[in-house]
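Progress note, project year one: complex with pyridoxal-5'-phosphate.
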Amino acid sequence: MNDSVYLNGEFIPLAEARIPVMDRGFLFGDSVYEVIPAYGGRLFRLPQHLHRLEQSLHAIHMQNPMSRQNWETILGALAAQHPGTDQSIYLQVTRGVAGARDHAIPAGLEPTIFAMSSPLPAPDPGIPARGIAAITLDDIRWRLCNIKATTLLPNVLLRQEAGERGALEAILIRDGLAVEGAASNLFIVDDGQLITPPKGEHLLPGITRDLVLELAAEAEIPYCEANITAERLDEADEIWLTSSTREIMPVTHLDDRPINNGRPGPLWRRMNELFQAYKEELRTKG
Ligand SMILES: Cc1ncc(COP(=O)(O)O)c(C=O)c1O
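Model obtained:
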């Protein structure tokens, strides 16, 4: 069981996991996925991740191939393989293996279900002092970005361009609005208020995003869900990017310009403390 992956009903070593080339996930990217952190062997916000999986499957006209309880058992078993180290659990459901390559969806396919656990590196300890650099790029993705689909070529190219320009993430601009990062959600701080774009087709409903809003509500930090124009992004007091694997990243340089004098801002420090406390509580108490 140690260091095995889950594939279609079996736990097997990663090197033995195989899928047929006629799998529609391979041929068309016809599949959806989730990435779930596990701290101390405990899955972070599992019900929320399984709910989003359900929504992604529904959006691509697929039934959930497993009950919530079966998901919990499988993902829990993967997380339990290394309770001493933080892990990230990846799961993917493809539409399955077809007889021929055809865009039209054949009836009666058996979905391919794959899940694995990998070490989750701790966030860069330099981030609280330096933050990260980001650039703005035109959002070249399709319109249904609320679906967590594995068709990630635009995200891959955008992230690559950010890397080549010395930045860790790209903030995507569509129709004059800053929507999210290539693999993260966007927050700004403007005059003491935390702002994040509202959910909709143009961004992924991030699990970390929702937690940040919950923590803000509990701590009575003023926040709202509102569109962020590219101009407002430029003038923000603080900019944050959130994701399950990278937590809350303070952007201190945007397009080579310093934000908040090039240092993580005070509201980021406060929110990061709340977030770390939430994580530690899960790790120690479940
Ligand atoms: C495009 C995009 N937006 C937002 C996120 C953040 O979502 P979560 O907090 O659920 O990881 C991700 C995560 O990978 C992403 O790929």
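The mean pLDDT is 97.
Residues 4-119 form a domain with the D-amino Acid Aminotransferase; Chain A, domain 1 fold (CATH 3.30.470.10).
No further modelling is planned for this target in the current period.
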